[in-house]
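Attaching the record inline, Q. Sequence:
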Amino acid sequence: MFEKEIEKYEQVRKEYEQKISRRMSKKAWMEYHEILFSAHSCAIEGNSFTVDDTRILREQGMAMVPVGRSLLECAEIADHFRALDFMTQHLSHPFDEDLLKNIHRLVMEHTIAYKAPNATAGEYTTEDMAAGDTIFGDHVQLISRVPQLMASTSKALTEGAHPLFVAAKWHGYFEYLHPFRDGNGRTGRLMSNFILLRANHPMLIITLSQRGEYISALRKIRTEGTDEYLVAFFFKCSIERMEEEMKQKERNTRPMLFF
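Structure, as predicted:
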């Protein structure tokens, strides 16, 4: 299952590496993608920062608050950058609960008090939860399954399973467990990218325009008991982004007439 998607992905990834990622310095490639990733990952959760707003904050810090944006939104973006920086500096870290909790702690460090006053960044929820039209399961039972999720994912990677396939499978089940009071989405997308970056694969960036398709695929895990829609979405999302970036480079390389 997903053999065709993996084959297509690897074909596109090979071309992408030749035309994009290997032609840029690792620092420049990462700076470009971390701004896009942070902007869109936070936007999926309701943050109104644009990509340009996010770039300004990354370059100038909290001293420059974009017009019309709240300090809370600034803190969300800044925390996301800190979590991403930590993640990229610790790619050799075991894929375990310690890493998961550290990422969540950094993602929610300066905002969890506003979103969930009784919660602690980096610690699992102590109460059952609901969000939107979903009542989540018994939090004690769900949290008890996290260690096995981390262990089985690490084992799958060690045994050579495809990184994007594993990232999608892990992400779906993690969001199903929903172990933290808030910040599960951002933490889950960061951890999925940890899997990809450690394997030297391109980052997966789910844009705000793809939010509906993404949420629908996650919902299918609860309503139909299958993650095949989410896995297919991960491959589609990644392939489309690589292809779009290559087309963008081609467009921007064409000669122009000045007169």
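DSSP finds twelve helices and two strands in the chain. The first helix runs from residue 3 to 19.

More tomorrow.
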